[in-house]
Design goal:
Radius of gyration: 17 Å
Order of helices and strands: HHHEHEHHEHEHEHEHEEE
Shape: globular
Helix content: 25-40%
Distance between the termini: 35 Å
Number of helices: 10
Strand content: 15-25%
Number of strands: 9
């Protein structure tokens, strides 16, 4: 293993607010991680009291991403990844899954959470043959993301853009689509787009819990209909089985957890 190729610059203007729950830390709590505070645990417990299924959604989302990356490396031959909205490091991060199969894979992570930045060295622990980097930036600034990512990735080569549970933080659907379009426009033919997000119109109890969370003062996360999530892939070639509940996207042989849950995602190739 080698030192990171890019050391993140300290975000001195950002401080960790431990008085308000944060979605990345709550998600980490649901995934069984330790990088969270009592306020996050309290918010997570309050959520699960209304909708215990959120833990299944969080872990199924992670498993979906792992299967996406495995497909991209093993079957599509992708060796570059731009992971926007990284979240806190947990088990089987993008670089770990990709570099286990292809040590030469290069990964750039993007997030603007100071706590994620504080743990970025874990995300930057690359194989000798590959590379990892971390960018402190917001999803709503795609031009900055692309400029910084170009220091590590070669945008002349096919690249996988990963937007896992991040677009829900962009309230306006047209703005969210514009962000996806801008990022994909910078990638060449043969690149891929991986998206998964919480879905509306599937589980009313989930929607009730999420709406209550959004009203709590925490940073809101907006559920979208399956049709709205599918629209992010317009102009791209969806990989079978298309946009489906994450549990049903190419489940591993022998999997017994293929029930439909309110988290949908897909993977598509840029022609």
């Amino acid at each position: 293993m080698t030192d990171p190729v890019t050391t993140p610059e300290p975000a001195e203007h950002q401080k960790i607010d431990t008085s308000v729950p944060h979605s990345a830390r709550i998600w980490n709590y649901w995934l069984g991680g330790k990088d969270n505070y009592p306020v996050d645990e309290a918010a997570g417990d309050a959520y699960t009291a209304v909708f215990p299924g959120i833990v299944t959604i969080a872990r199924s989302s992670r498993a979906f991403l792992r299967r996406n990356i495995t497909y991209l490396v093993s079957e599509a031959g992708i060796r570059q990844f731009l992971d926007v909205g990284t979240g806190l490091p947990t088990a089987q991060n993008t670089h770990e899954v990709a570099q286990q199969i292809a040590p030469e894979a290069r990964i750039v992570y993007v997030d603007n959470d100071p706590m994620v930045l504080g743990h970025a060295r874990a995300l930057l622990y690359s194989t000798r043959e590959g590379a990892t980097a971390y960018i402190d930036s917001d999803v709503t600034d795609p031009d900055r993301i692309l400029a910084a990512a170009a220091k590590t990735l070669d945008f002349g080569r096919p690249t996988a853009l990963i937007l896992s549970n991040i677009l829900g933080h962009v309230a306006d659907h047209d703005q969210a689509r514009s962000i996806v379009t801008r990022l994909m426009d910078a990638l060449p033919s043969g690149s891929y787009l991986s998206i998964n997000d919480g879905s509306r119109g599937v589980d009313p109890v989930f929607e009730q819990a999420q709406d209550a969370y959004n009203d709590s003062g925490a940073v809101p996360y907006n559920l979208r209909t399956v049709e709205e999530i599918t629209a992010f892939f317009d102009g791209l070639e969806l990989v079978e089985p298309g946009v489906v509940s994450v549990t049903q996207w190419r489940p591993e042989p022998g999997s017994t957890s293929a029930d439909v849950i309110a988290e949908h995602g897909g993977l598509a190739r840029k022609p």
